[in-house]
Amino acid sequence: MRGLQNCYRFLISRRSYSSQTWDSLATSQQVTLPLNFLHGRRVDARGNTSFKLIAPATGLPLRSVSNSNDDDVQEAVQVARNSFRTWSKMSGFERGQVLKRAADICRKRVEELARTEVLDTGKPIWEARYDIEGCADTIEYYGGLAAAIAGDFLQLSGGSFAYTVREPLGVVGGIGAWNYPFQMAAWKSSPALACGNTIVFKPSQFTPLTAVMLGEIYQEAGLPDGCYNVVQGEGATGQILTSHPGIDKVTFTGSVATGSRIMATCAKDVKHVTLELGGKSPLIIFADAHLENAVKGAMLANFSNQGQVCSNGTRVFVEESIAEEFLSMLKTRVSKMKIGDPMLEDTTVGASISEEQAKIVLGYIDIAKKEVSSVLDLNSKICSVTNI
Q1: Could you write out the DSSP letters of every residue in 116-157?
Q2: What are the helix and strand counts (H, E) for the chain?
Q3: pTM across the whole model
Q4: Distance between CA atoms of residues 108 and 115, nearest Å
Q5: What is the rounded CA–CA span in Å between residue 276 and residue 295?
Q6: CB atoms within 10 A of CB 24
Q7: I need a surface site. Which of 11, 82, 123, 311 has the fewest CB within 10 A?
Q8: Aldehyde dehydrogenase domain: which residues (predicted)?
Q9: Under a CB-based contact definition with an 8 Å cutoff, are residues 350 and 118 in contact?
Q10: Could you tell me how far CA 146 lies from the centroid of its own chain?
């Protein structure tokens, strides 16, 4: 438990970074250029409010980012609707070729994308590379699927028949979470584009950088102007986007509370909506399990991305007969985790997304320490239910 606590206190001290890498990233064009993406190019937002972009690993402010206002969202949606007329008429094969080229470009730019993702999120560089490579695979997958999208033909009696035609919905409004920024943009845009839709995407205000880079990659791959658009902003911008009458479908990843509000907003216009929300995922380990693999699974389920994953195994139930051995093996592995500069190849744990989030985690650790100590005092034995 002490190792875990130190892991999160690392962010609060956060003064161990002084490398030239961080300085060059903080002043790169990915940070300094406009962060909205409309008409196939970067543009400035016109809102009169803004938010500070902070590098999680260093705690240093990178820049001020303007919130997109009603006019920005209106323009983005209109651009997407205009582009829809052309994109939706292209064959699935043609759309798929664009996505496949985009996947190839992602693979060529893995290092640049991964380093910008580390600047944005504080996650270790090796994990960021893995994310980007997975996104390239996803974009390629939907590129290959695009040509196979087809309706059905049904033979009826008497020589009659029925058939169905799959048609694009229109403009998709996407809102992403901060834990996997490039993945959010890729996973929400590539299936929408494959099906002939266009998209307006709003990244989390904590991680605005790589979604714009994806727009430039799509542009280089041959995606027509206006098919993929990015508007930056906080919650108010998201509300403008999801309530816009020109949006035909909303896809959101984030908290249950925000998802509930988005569902209510979409219900007013009977919009299509897809929600990926947070949850509690149990991991149950029985005595007949391969214990080494079980420990690896528990590590993966709880420490990936500094534990900032909506599908984490946040409740680990261990059968009493193996609980002591499981805990011993787990502590050994946790003690070997390296907490430090996420740009270093051997760093296991990087930074939480913000100081506020780190303090929340520390609070939970304090609660856990109190609860565990009270349980361990009971007959001096390991509890059959172990929370990691």
Answers
A1: HHHHHH---HHHHHHHHHHHHHHHHHHHHHHTT----EEE-G
A2: 14, 13
A3: 0.86
A4: 14
A5: 27
A6: 10
A7: 311
A8: 46-375
A9: yes
A10: 23
Q: Using N-to-C axis directions, what is the helix angle for 92-108 and 181-194, rounded to 10°?
A: 160
By the 10 Å C-beta count (0-12 exposed, 13-18 middle, 19+ buried), 375 is classed as middle
Judge residue 369's burial from the number of C-beta atoms within 10 Å of its C-beta, 0-12 exposed, 13-18 middle, 19 or more buried.
middle
Q: Which residues contact 28 (CB under 8 A, 6 or more apart)?
A: 116
Tell me how far apart the alpha carbons of residues 16 and 369 are, in angstroms, rounded to a whole number.
Answer: 28
Band of residue 325 on the pLDDT scale cut at 50, 70, 90: very high
* Kind and range of the H or E run holding 104: helix 92-108
Contact between residue 232 and residue 204 where contact means Cβ atoms under 8 Å apart: no
229 near 37, Cβ under 8 Å?
Answer: yes
User: Is residue 56 within 8 Å of 178, Cβ to Cβ?
Assistant: no
Contact 200, 233 (CB under 8 A): no
Cα 108 from Cα 98, distance rounded (Å): 16
Q: Which of 182, 170, 173 is nearest to 68 (CA)?
A: 173
Length of the chain as a residue count: 388
The tokens of 136 are what? 């390239």
Q: What residues contact residue 306 under an 8 Å CB cut-off, 6+ apart?
A: 7, 122, 123, 349, 350, 351, 352
Confidence of residue 379 (pLDDT cuts 50, 70, 90): very low
Token pair of 230, please?
Answer: 């990015």
Q: Is 230 helix (H, G, I), strand (E, B) or coil?
A: strand
